[in-house]
Design goal:
With 420 residues, the protein is of the alpha+beta class. The protein is built from ten helices and 21 strands. It is 37% helix and 25% strand.
Length: 420
């Protein structure tokens, strides 16, 4: 076959044709992209035109004092609130930082807690041992009067007071308190305060009592320490108190349940796309009589903690019905430090039940008066007056006795015999 040669004019036409084709492809691609972007912009404009109209009216006619940033923050909060989900919220940058600090169980401050009840408002109810306030000489029972010369009565809320008291570690805050007829002012150097969410003690009958305040960071580690300590002290059964517990991290709850449950599913989450993710416990667990105390303020991880133990049949739930939260939330940080905290997954108990709007129904229903609820929340409810705790003690004692009846013992001849 002979080689065919292409003359110059033919080559030029081919190049020109290629350029035209490339231009057309590029033009049509760019046009399609531009049109799609235009459609997006028009959709965005249509979506937010009403908000712009309201902003224009406010700018033109509103006579009150306001800042545009405050109005925007309010609009963002209102948008999330409009979802109708009480578990979702918009948080400002300050609120976001405060929440993150609280969930880490550490904060920078002086180490005091105070009452927000009207009759005892701003009375100091607790001082962290060895903390800045303790070292400065502030005592439980002192009543807060001023922070940096500002009267607490002038503040809008307890949250505002907390923001004034807290601050960067190493800085000084001046606190004025009232004590036995006189006002005293203390210059307190703020420090890093570690808070603890688990408390325990041994009750009569070798019943280990563990109160779990939340399921935030490090709580599973605290729980393990208290659990092991009570076992070493000879605990024969346990009461886990998750009353007034607002929940926390799923991973923390799962780690705690892993100590208490046999091998199997602890909880299953389902996201918006329908993807399921089961979380499991291993085969090692503590086989001892257990009771869980709940009330209407046991929320999220707290009620799933109770539900898992109840569904596996390893614990009896005592108290009142839980709140009924069936969603978990995820926090999305925004560029300015603010955040959107919204429900992103549904979750289900080991048996596949949702607790949304239903909650956990106790095996033994014991209601509590409003006055007792308030005293429980403030730590003023004595064990003898805590009807729910007393019912849990009786239930746990019965479970321990039943377990001892089933355990074989060795008689004088070396053979095993049941306890009579």
């Amino acid at each position: 076959m002979k080689n065919r040669k292409i003359n110059l004019s033919t080559a030029f036409m081919l190049v020109l044709l290629a350029v035209v084709c490339t231009f057309n492809i590029t033009y049509f691609t760019a046009t399609e992209y531009y049109n799609s972007r235009l459609d997006d912009l028009e959709a965005v404009e249509s979506r937010y035109s009403k908000l712009k109209s309201v902003a224009d009216i406010v700018d033109k006619y509103f006579v009150g004092d306001y800042t545009e940033q405050e109005a925007i923050e309010g609009a963002l909060a209102g948008y999330v609130d409009g979802l109708g989900d009480r578990w979702s919220a918009y948080y400002t940058a300050e609120q976001t930082a405060r929440i993150a600090e609280d969930e880490s169980n550490t904060y920078s401050g002086i180490g005091v807690t105070y009452s927000t009840e009207e009759a005892t408002k701003y009375e100091i109810t607790g001082v962290t041992p060895g903390g800045p306030a303790d070292q400065a000489g502030i005592l439980p029972g002192d009543r807060l009067l001023e922070v940096e010369g500002v009267s607490v009565e002038e503040l809008e809320s307890a949250d505002q007071l907390s923001q004034m008291v807290r601050g960067e570690a190493g800085t000084v805050v001046n606190i004025t308190i009232f004590r036995t007829g006189e006002n005293l002012t203390f210059a307190v150097t703020r420090g890093t305060i570690r808070t603890y969410s688990v408390a325990s003690r041994m009750l009569e009958g070798q019943i280990g009592y563990i109160a779990i305040q939340d399921f935030d960071q490090h709580v599973d580690e605290e729980f393990d320490q208290h659990l092991d300590s009570l076992i070493e002290q000879g605990a024969k059964g346990f009461i886990f108190d998750v009353r007034n517990n607002p929940g926390g991290y799923l991973s923390v709850m799962r780690a705690m349940l892993d100590r208490l449950l046999p091998e199997g599913i602890v909880i299953t989450t389902v996201d918006k796309q329908g993807r399921e993710e089961p979380y499991t416990s291993d085969a090692a667990w503590i086989e001892m009589p257990m009771t869980v105390l709940t009330n209407e303020y046991s929320i999220s991880a707290a009620e799933f903690f109770a539900a898992a133990l109840q569904e596996y049949g390893v614990a009896t739930v005592v108290g009142s019905k839980t709140s009924g939260k069936g969603y978990s939330q995820q926090t999305f940080q925004l560029n300015d430090g603010s955040s959107v905290h919204i429900s992103t997954t549904r979750y289900y108990t080991p048996k596949g039940n949702s607790l949304a709007e239903t909650g956990v129904t106790p095996d033994q229903l014991v209601e509590m008066s409003y006055e007792d609820l308030r005293n429980l929340a403030s730590g003023k409810l004595e064990d003898a007056d805590d009807q729910q705790l007393q019912a849990a003690i009786q239930t746990t004692a019965g479970l321990i006795a039943a377990q001892l009846q089933m355990e074989p013992v060795v008689d004088g001849g070396g053979e095993t015999a049941p306890v009579e």
